[in-house]
Amino acid sequence: MSIFSKLFKLFLTVVLMPLIPMALLLTFYQGKVKDSILGTHANLAQIVASSINQHIEDLGWRLAFGQNLAEVLRAGKDPKPVLRTALTSNPDFLMLAVLDKNGKEMARVGEKSFLAKVPTLDLSQDEFLPMPDEKNLSVSGFEVVEGRPVSEFVTPLPGGNYLYGIMSFFGLLSRVQEQYIGRTGQIYIVGQDGQFFYGNNQVPLHIAPEQMQKLFAGKTHLIPSVRGPKEVFVGAFAPTPIWGTYAVVLQLKAEAFRGLYYTNIIILLFMLAIATLAYFGALTFAESLGEPISALDKAAREVSRGNLDQKVDENLGWGEFQTLIASFNKMTADLKDYQLLQVQAQLSEMKENVFRSVAHDLRAPLLGLQGYLYILSSGKASPQEEKEYLRLMDEAARNLSALLEDVLDVSRLEAGMLTPHLARVNLKDLARYAVDTLLPAAKEKGLEITTTVPDMWVQADEKLLRRVVVNLVSNAVKFTQQGFVRVEAHQTARETLLSVADSGIGLTPQEQQTVFQKYRQVHSDSRGYGLGLFISRQIVEAHGGTLTVSSRPGQGSVFTLALPNQEDK
Known about the structure:
This protein is an alpha+beta fold.
């Protein structure tokens, strides 16, 4: 990201920062307005529920004939004339009946077509029947009979009998359901099972009963959202005195919140205008500062890459920028002089360290050769001793050759001259070769050395990869006094993994960080030059893979070689 972009974003952020509390205020305002709209719906639902409650209370004085009916029953007369008179006086009554103390029917009157649909009453086991000593009126929930919403009611009579009736709520609900809120809002009567009782002018909403049941079971009477097949509604509800029913006000969400949406659009347009002005203001200000800072940034990046010849034109700056640019140019010149001195010192130290390390490792085999040559040239050695000295000289020469080869390999690796010649290589063969080669040394120490590598092919330089595997197995045998050395392999979707595990002395976390460095031997009392693992890791990385170690002191180590699968290369 350029300096200009950073400055532009910085100033734009500063200017637009006040828009954040404005957005939060807008969100808060939206919530309050929505709650207010839903509160209006809740008030309307409560009014409807109160109207139904008033209708039920009015039922009490319409049942005032119950006293006269009780006297007729006490005199042993037929109660039907009294019931017919009450039925005629109350058009909402569809049926009236007298029940005995056990809730069984004694007499009934009503519309003939309606009476034919109602079986003989027996409420002896019905919880709807009040206790004999109760004076309250029990009203059931709505049912739809012959297209009319009706409810049952039962009230105790003096003397222990009951007055039972079926009352139509068609007139009341028709008046309620014909009320509109806006163009799409209406009032509905819904049972506790989520079923709607629709009036003649109401279109079914097809809202799942489960949704309504969930809303009724909630802690609030507001309905922030309920989804139909195509529309989303909002509203509120209130329980009615009719057992198990609710007065529900529902309105399309788009209509209910239309005014709020218009307000949001106006506020958003205002915020967009502020953002536009802030954009161009920040653009102008960033351009005035961007050029000199950008030039300094570019020059600093070049300096960080080591290019100390980088200079910045002082004419690009103005005011304090000119002083800053002049100081920067002087700093780069001083850094260049210091770098030359630093490089010379580091080069001298590096040469000294490498020479000291190589000279130390060369000294032992050379002194050995010189000593054996002196003894052989003196003629004092027996034939058997001469044979042993020649063997030791051959071993010293081989060690010297191996050291020189490792040093040359390190030089080639660091110069990027070691390029693997890739071909299909079977890891099973490499693992078997390494185990067979080190088997005598492992048996001599009493170690169990095994390989469980199946036929597994990778793209690699067979000679170089064999060297890595043999080196890993050799180190495992060298640093394991008892237990096992195991070579295993498996494949994942992206790479092939070969691991060499042992039960040896292990490595500390600090040793794991340095074990792959050149001329570094974790255990100074062991034979070697500290180049094997360094060369091994370089070879693996030249193949595009990784070589890692996992270890705990005293619990062994696991070196894992990972190579990408052929299709990933």
